[in-house]
Amino acid sequence: MTTSSTNDTIIALSSGQGRSGVAVLRLSGSGSCDVLRFLSKQDPPKIRVAATRWLIDQNGDRFDEALVFRFEAPNSFTGEDVVEIQCHGSPAVISTIIELTIGSGLARLAEPGEFSRRAFENGKLDLLQAEGIADLIESNSAAQMKQAAKFLAGDASDVLISWRKTLLQASAFLAASLDFSDEGDVSDDVHLPAQNLIDDLITNFETSLRDADRASRVRDGLRIAILGKPNAGKSTLINYLTSRETAIVSEIPGTTRDIVESQIQLAGVPVTLADTAGLRETDDFVEAEGVRRAESWAASADLIIFLSRADDQSNIKRPDNLRDNDLWVVSQVDRMADGRAFNSDVDLQISVQSGDGLESLVKMMSERVRSMISLQEDPVIVRARHKANLETALDALKQARVQLSDFGDVDLAEFELSVARSALDQILGRVEVEDILGEVFSGFCVGK
């Protein structure tokens, strides 16, 4: 975000881009009502009362009839005076409203995330809630939607605030121990109340960090790599899973040479599937690069499905590169006369041609996805910046515990508690760190 004045009145399209039945434009700032007067040549309606207004162009011609609302500071989304214009969703109407407004000098075009940033700066949202808005807008599945709504509702914020209060209580106990340190009958366990609170917080922080990867997979989705030798049926399987001709299918080995990514949903979670180059030794530079990319993509995948062709008797044991949660699947069992491949510890045998095993495969994939995600009621951290700050807070608490239990140093312990509080404040956005705010809000769409 640039350094444009926060005193400016801003305007932007808040609904989706493109042609639609209705579009919503939002104004925020002290001059919002002045813009509406300029556009309609009438006074604004009463607060929170819908009214229709004809919008007038520079020639005095009416170009659209809109439904308008106004909200008075501080009782609005941004905490400022706000006007919303619901017009017809014609690109011509939208651009005319914005061009007239900017041309009047009464407002400027909003920057990405500026409405939400103003809401944050005016105390209407904390940073976790603002990120919840962005995640809700970007959600593509029910699981993502529900998780984002919990952050927007303040569920995670409430947990962090309660942790912060506990830190303050621990600090208060330490301060009290200092007050009584000059008295001769002070007990050796005078620091015990603070230590107990610190131990409880360490447990809570460690639990949240353990759940972080599982919760973040709901937000970010999972990655599943389809691996195997050439002609193992990887592209055919991808086409079945995506219900379209995503990848080229050919009997010629090495047809797939680059990563072909597709998106589906499993267990209500977005999943990126990767059709990869067939794994084999080759002197072809392009194919060899495809194999390298396939192995690299698979290394960071959440799940690998390794296909072995039923009539390839060289694959008689589980591939060495598979993890416990990965799937070894024998494909094209329709090529075998008895419909069976080999008596080994394969997870499943399938045939896309006959349909055998496909429903079971999707079920197994969905079960794997469910086992890797967290749909807990109150996820606290899902983003990398959340995790980094909570790790900082956890390290500080462990240091505070050492200072108290091993050295009895209250001053250093209190310093570490202040470090932990600062880390939590950064997650909530209570500490003014401009580069963090810029990174968060620059990822928003212009209308939010």
Description:
- Helices cover 44% and strands 17% of the residues.
- The chain has 13 helices and twelve strands.
- α6 packs antiparallel against α12 (410-428) and α11 runs antiparallel to α12 (410-428).
- It is α/β, with parallel strands linked by helices and 448 residues long.
- It has helices at 32-40, 91-104, 114-121, 127-138, 142-152, 155-179, 192-220, 234-242, 285-299, 358-372, 384-407, 410-428, 434-442; strands at 10-13, 20-28, 51-56, 62-71, 82-89, 108-109, 222-228, 260-266, 269-275, 303-309, 327-331, 348-349.
- A six-stranded mixed beta sheet has the order 3-4-5-2-1-6, covered by helices on one side. Strands 8-9-7-10-11-12 form a six-stranded mixed beta sheet, with helices on both faces.
Strand order of the largest sheet: 3-4-5-2-1-6
Corresponding CATH architecture of the largest domain: 3-Layer(aba) Sandwich
Helix content: 40-55%
Overall morphology: flat
> What is the ordering of alpha helices and beta strands?
EEHEEEHEHHHHHEHEEHEEEHHHH
Indicate the CATH class of the largest domain.
Alpha Beta
The biggest sheet, with number of strands, parallel, antiparallel or mixed sense and barrel status, is: 6 strands, mixed
Structural class: alpha/beta
**Strand segment count:** 12
Q: How many H/I helices?
A: 13
Average pLDDT rating = 87
State the domain count.
3
Spell out the CATH superfamily of the largest domain. P-loop containing nucleotide triphosphate hydrolases
Oligomer state equals single chain
Low-confidence stretches: none
Radius of gyration: 29 Å
Q: What percentage of the residues does DSSP assign to strands (E)?
A: 15-25%
Distance from N terminus to C terminus (CA atoms, Å) equals: 13 Å
